[in-house]
Amino acid sequence: MWSVDDAALERIAIGAGILGTGGGGNPYLGRLMASRLLAQGAAITVVDPDAVPDDALVVSVGGMGSPTVGIERLQRGDEPLVAMRALERHLGRRFTHLVPGEIGGGNSTRPMVVAAQTGLPVVDADGMGRAFPELQMDTFSIYGVRPTPAAIADPRGHVALFDAIADAATLERHARAVTIQMGGASGYAFPVMTGAELKRTAIPRTLTLADRIGAAVLTARTAHADPVAAVLAVAGGQRLFAGKVGDVRRRLEGGFARGELRLEGTGEHAGRALLVDFQNENLIARLPDGDVLAVVPDLICLVDAETAEPVTTEVVRYGLRVVVLGIPAPAMLKTPEALAVVGPAAFGYPDVPYAPLSGWYGVGAGRSDW
Amino acid sequence: MWSVDDAALERIAIGAGILGTGGGGNPYLGRLMASRLLAQGAAITVVDPDAVPDDALVVSVGGMGSPTVGIERLQRGDEPLVAMRALERHLGRRFTHLVPGEIGGGNSTRPMVVAAQTGLPVVDADGMGRAFPELQMDTFSIYGVRPTPAAIADPRGHVALFDAIADAATLERHARAVTIQMGGASGYAFPVMTGAELKRTAIPRTLTLADRIGAAVLTARTAHADPVAAVLAVAGGQRLFAGKVGDVRRRLEGGFARGELRLEGTGEHAGRALLVDFQNENLIARLPDGDVLAVVPDLICLVDAETAEPVTTEVVRYGLRVVVLGIPAPAMLKTPEALAVVGPAAFGYPDVPYAPLSGWYGVGAGRSDW
């Protein structure tokens, strides 16, 4: 059990930005809201999943919607709380724990806001170990947690509850349709799970991972060391490519930012190029001859070559000097049932076999159990 | 209090078809489903609104979605029941009465199905006195019944509940967005109201009106009399035009069937033409020189010149011989607060003043209180 203070919020936001693999929304807004609540005397407690009782009533809270809209619209900050309270009234029970749905991007810090608002502890775990463009792409639903009852809320307090939906993809479609009507962003509360279900389905200790990545980056920056190398030292994975951003093609399709970017190699990669496709998040990194260096669900993270600041698909632009990191996905995303939902074929690459990156996911070497 | 038998279902379906003013969906599917339940021993009871206790818990049930999809998709027939039961669980209370949301079209008979399934009585009233393209265009919400909590359900049993939405137009947008995701049609249960609210806001005795219109048509057909004149004798209003359908332009826009049709006059109207615009329902009937003969919320009903069978905007086609009836809207649709929601301006005719048709709405002459 540990307390999240302002410094931890900063570290987690940095780590979550990198684990966002180009998408996931901006963690800074949630960080600022949580930080304000801390300054007003609130507390945020993180508990290890092993410490969650089997009969705990856990809910995942966060925001859904296009990342761009999220930044502009999710200003009130209590949408996930309103959704959670509506779900409690619907269930006739109170939740005992919160858990992030995705550690990558904005949904890493939004549960902190709800924790500060309610005093509920946040479980050190999440359902993705990274970010994904759709909410059903999580280990909770992949491993059998029922997606409903579920609730979403908008800044005006409007609530939509969903029930009796057995498949998470249908919930995602229904909830996204209402979210669009709500102005493009909503706070969500789902799925509901017991402590036992959480421990069986969540990817453990990913808040700790984000915190350690952020700490490594900040320490390296202060010490004038290499922050990119510091990330890899903590989080495993490899430098896939270093280069300058060339062409970026970006289009909005069905609420998603889709596109491709081309990097022109620098340093050890001079004279070579790398192509990266994205759908909110980076999906595949390949050479112009077609060789795949990394593919979803492995994490493909663009970071600024100097500062290791995450370069999201929203802000990536011509001329930026970046390093592309390839971080192996957590083991729970690499099972056959997970790959059916988050593997290359699920993202429109039926002919790309999933060849796992070597390395580990989690804090420090050898944590292949993560 | 009266019982609906098979013959009454037939009469109500005919009357509701005419009161659908070109839209409202097809009443025959609900009629067939209710008829099947009657044959299995179920009963359907209709009660006068004056007989509903003030503390009754009333809910409107029916189907939403595009009429075309409705015919093909609403096959299970228990979607409104599933929505109603979900709403009861959410409220923690059981409903005591059902009321149609709109007497025009399919939502006249769908509550009969739920009545047969549950044994709940149906109130002889509705929220429109006709059909309108959007669910918030009802006297319940116009006169202050809160639109939520509300529920919709699809044929797979998926449920969406909406809460804390104060304006019916927002509920309409949210519910329609989910309905589209549900395949284009859903069963609904909303709004919830007390008996006192029902009596204050509903348009009374419209099931009786539909029944009497249907009876008049059937009697006239059997007697080889003029069914069109029989409709007018019961329901008031006037023959606006008799003619042959010429051009029909129809397009799907935002889930609505919009378009225009042109009638070439026959008989007493030979040599003249009439233009009718529709959005699911007929909105305005005018002469080519711009003179408006009738405009929403007054009822503009196309019926077959021989049989008085309603000719909906779905089936209207070149060459049909029709009579256009103009039936005055019920008084509750003609107040300033109602005209703001269902007047010409609300349908995109800001420059058309509402000039009420003369005549009455309801059964028999002189019922201007309806």
CATH architecture term of the largest domain in chain A: 3-Layer(aba) Sandwich
Radius of gyration of chain A: 19 Å
Largest interface: A-B, 20 and 21 residues
Identify the quaternary structure here. homodimer
Number of strand segments of chain A: 17
The arrangement of helices and strands of chain A along the chain is: EHHEEHHEHEEHEEHEHEHHEEEEEEEH
Sheet with most strands: strand arrangement of chain A: 15-14-13-12-11-17-16
Provide mean pLDDT of chain A, rounded: 92
Could you name the CATH topology of the largest domain in chain A? CV3147-like fold
* Net shape of chain A: globular
Broad structural category of chain A: alpha+beta
Percentage of residues in DSSP E strands of chain A: 25-35%
Q: At the fourth CATH level, what is the homologous superfamily of the largest domain in chain A?
A: CV3147-like domain
Overall number of structural domains of chain A: 2
First-last Cα distance of chain A: 19 Å
Number of helices of chain A: 11
Tell me about the largest β-sheet of chain A. 7 strands, antiparallel
Unreliable stretches of chain A = 69-74, 365-370
